[in-house]
Amino acid sequence: MLKEKGVPFFPDSGWRDVVFGTGVILLLVILAIFVGAPELVGPPDPSNVDVKPHPDWYLMWPEALYALMPYNIESYVMFLMPVILFGLLFAVPFISLGGQRAPLRRPWAIAGVIGVLASIISLTYMGIKAPWSPDFNTQQLSDSEVNAPTQEALHGYQLFYDKGCQYCHQVEGKGGIRGPNLTKVGERLTPEEMTIRIVNGGHNMPAFGGSLSHDELNAIVAFLQSRKVTSNDKVPTAQSE
Ligand code: HEC
After folding, report:
1. Which of 13, 115, 201, 230 could disulfide-link 207, Cβ–Cβ 3.0 to 4.6 Å?
2. pLDDT, tens digit, for every residue of 123-146?
3. Measuring from each residue's beta carbon to the nearest atom of ligand 1, which residues come in under 6 Å?
């Protein structure tokens, strides 16, 4: 077959290499001249706490993968996953000797490629959204959005905002998504359960027992108790009247 159909490397396919290689280098030179490297801006500001460290886009999916997996298996995955994956790739020619090239005749290979692409795309999306990071830019709710039944609950919302609860908890559509949405928490939890959770913290929730006074704690619980479906319904009726 080689004698009948083959072509010598030089000059036939070597020439194609030359054309393609020159094209790639030309493209790089053009990009370097007209696009170039990103401009470096001034020195970093160490007092800025509002930072969301992000890798470049092509490393976003591994970041999301490590952020979402249980943290105690992270080191194993980091070391073993590349070894196993590359080992499998090197083994393919030994395991699978025959085979097909037409895509429709090799459904497993195609399914594998689609699975890998879908995982990378969805992990990149998660990496951009970064639900595991608190949202330090969250906006304060307006008084009508808070819709507090009492003065204490209104004060409670102010504390909720000032103490940074809203960095992690969404209320009425505003706030981070690190912790559960608290828009309707008044229906889920009793005041005692709320107090215990706020004082002791929880999994990924800091304990606030040492940084809230008794009155502040009660005010926040009063605010959270007023988070019910019905408290929300009042707003549109009040406005339509
Ligand atoms: C760093 C992020 C973070 C901050 C800041 C934070 N929380 Fe949480 N919170 C969480 C997480 C995560 C959970 C879920 C904990 C769990 O399941 O063990 C949670 C759970 C809760 C719950 C129970 C909700 C439920 O549905 O079970 C309440 C109530 C709560 N937080 C109130 C507060 C209040 C009040 C503050 C501010 C004083 C606050 N949180 C600050 C992350 C945070």
Report:
1. 201
2. 999 998 888 888 888 999 999 999
3. 134, 160, 163-165, 167-169, 178-180, 185, 188-189, 194, 197-198, 202-206, 208, 220, 224
